[in-house]
Amino acid sequence: MTRKIKSIDDILKNRLCTGCGACAAFAPAAIEMAETADENWRPRKIGALDADVEESIAKACTGAFPASAGEAKDLHESSWGPVLDVWEGYAGAYDIRHKGSSGGAVTALALFAIEKMGFHGALHVKARKDNPTLNEAAISKCRAELMEGAGSRYAPASIGDKLRLVADADKPSVVIGKPCDIAGANMVAGHVPELAARMGLTISIFCAGVPSHKGTEELLEHLAPDQPGVLASLDYRGEGWPGDMRATWRTLDGPQRVAISYNDGWGNVLQKHRQWRCQVCADHTGEHADISVGDPWQTPPEKDAVGKSLIVVRTERGRAFLKAIADSGYLFLEKKDPAILFDAQPNLFTTKGAVWGRSVALKVAGLNAPATADDSFACWKKLPVKAKVQSVAGTFKRVRSRKLHEPKEILWAEEQRG
């Protein structure tokens, strides 16, 4: 029997939390986001919360009850959500393009909004200055602050608990996050008019799943088994496309930097540390955002390549913003056939289909799974027979090997550290 979802604890025990932080935005005096030892950030109660209020928050959770991006009219929309236009582009400023994960498009869009559109700032994730293995969400109001968050952060992060910074501003802001972050922010905005009025543009990055802090620790050991000093910086992408994963330590002999390839760091280390909720997520491309940005993998990277970004326009607001930036020099754009998404991101198409099979397997096993829409089933039907079988049979194996039938116990990171 599946368990009824009436509280935040129910969501956590059933492994339905994405870590977006939207619940903390609803009740900041009662809920904070904290890092766990083996997953993403999770909500933690710090004050009294009325049972009826908590149940309302739980019922609004986009991790447990994902919102639909709209009824799909064909396989393309089933696969990628609403798509008005698709572009390839790159930042006009070389340093932004060079530091970005692909072509620096997200930073360029945010900078244009601040400098030319009169936006208050951009809410996004960056490395913490006191500990580069950890992330924090912050409002950036200028170029230098935006550059601190340029490039991917393959580690736990959430923006939901900082949405008040957007709502309290006197002008609109850009909100940048993972697909689950944007879905959560939109859900909160639907209940908080002040936030809705200040979310001037939403940008989602494509996401293949969030590795835990254990993944970061293993990555550092992979980079340098005998870590030579005090960690000064940790970068997962950038300085070329896709760029190396690299860390710099401060030592008595000066800075020491070690790098490995993106394929090595992601393929051999980080991806195995992704939280379970990401394995049953049907939206890896930001279907609820105004604009989504990912990698144009249909063109294999060359050594020392300068990157481009794949830019998906999903709303009329996003389309108007792209039109405004087109001739500004902030972002150079080339229009593409939307069908290019199948070639650019075949793994994410396969994942969206596999999620339907995984969800079915969980429900047959008597476990809770996020609601899946017809669009995920449409993708599943297009998978090869072997992939269809694996999506179901593989999940039954994971139920046993990962003990998914047992309620998830939350181990807070600071408790593990002692």
Helix-strand makeup class: alpha+beta
Mean pLDDT over the full residue set: 95
Radius of gyration from CA coordinates:
21 Å
Give the N-terminus to C-terminus distance in angstroms.
Answer: 37 Å
Provide the low-confidence segments as ranges: none
Alpha plus pi helix count: 19
**Percent of sequence in beta strands:** 15-25%
The main pleated sheet reads as: 8 strands, mixed
Helix percent reads 25-40%
Can you tell me the CATH architecture of the domain at 80-211 and 272-344?
A: 3-Layer(aba) Sandwich
Please give the CATH class of the domain at 80-211 and 272-344. Answer: Alpha Beta
Lateral strand order in the biggest sheet: 5-4-6-7-11-12-3-13
Quickly list its features.
418 residues; alpha+beta; eight-stranded mixed sheet
Q: What does this entry look like structurally?
A:
The chain has about 425 residues and is an alpha+beta fold. Among the domains are: about 200 residues, Aspartate Aminotransferase, domain 2 (3-Layer(aba) Sandwich); about 60 residues. It has 19 helices and 13 strands. Helix 16 packs across helix 17 and helix 16 crosses helix 18. The longest helix has 19 residues.
